[in-house]
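FW: tagging you since you asked about this chain on Friday. Here's the raw sequence from the shared folder, copied in full. Didn't touch anything.
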Amino acid sequence: MSWLNRVRNAIASVTQSVTAKDTPDNLWHKCPGCGQMIFTKEYEENLSVCPSCDHHGRIGARTRFRQIFDEGRFTLLPPPKVPEDPLRFRDSKRYADRLKAARASTNEPDALLNARGAIGGLDAIVGVQDFAFMGGSMGVGVGEAFIAGIHAAIAERLPYIVFTASGGARMQEGILSLMQMPRMTVAVAELKEAGLPYIVVLTDPTSGGVMASYALIGDVHLAEPKATLAFTGRRVIENTIREKLPEGFQTSEYLLEHGMLDMIVERKELPATLARLLAYLAPVKAAA
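HL: got it, structure written out here
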């Protein structure tokens, strides 16, 4: 056997020994904003924000809690128990199967989690919607979790902060999903009657019934940069009014310019900004 054949065979042997499972499939992250390939570790260390174009990626509830609470420490509030698949809904799949798949992929019971922790040394209850769970859709589980978070805040005399990320109402629950809008609005009114702050942080994307209810009735409205914030899709609006919408319509920057937001905050600045707001707005507790 010639030396060339020996080298060729050696290379082939090494190549065959490297299987798919030996090569990490999550080593790189492709930014949806600019298409840049980023090392996943670098991306996560930068709080899931692209270092090239500042695109703020979507993150889950527990990751959000670790980012905003002091030293990443928090206590999860127990999720409320709600009837599952109350309408026995089925489209291309059974709703029960969709729930099972969403829970398997996210390891969460539903699209909104609450946690208690300190931000800048000040305690707060924080609710976070996870777009990865059926598009963060608002069903009975989300409504009950939101109301439970507010009731916990009232009971402990704490502010309530919610991070929204949703495509709107959960169609598989029909009218039961839409009923959450007034229920959650009433809960916010109870929080305000108790003299406690309600702060909303809108993240990409927030739309539909969520945008039309509890996402825009806060005492203060923050948003992450370049987030899509809308009641309905751009194409639907253009087809309805038969006009071309302005560039940048339905973004954080457009809403800020037109008075619907108080400020746009970079993800790395959110803990400090929230701490400053809590220092201004949170009630001072009497010494024991």
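FW: Residues 13-55 form one domain.
HL: agreed, and The mean pLDDT is 91.
FW: great, closing this out.
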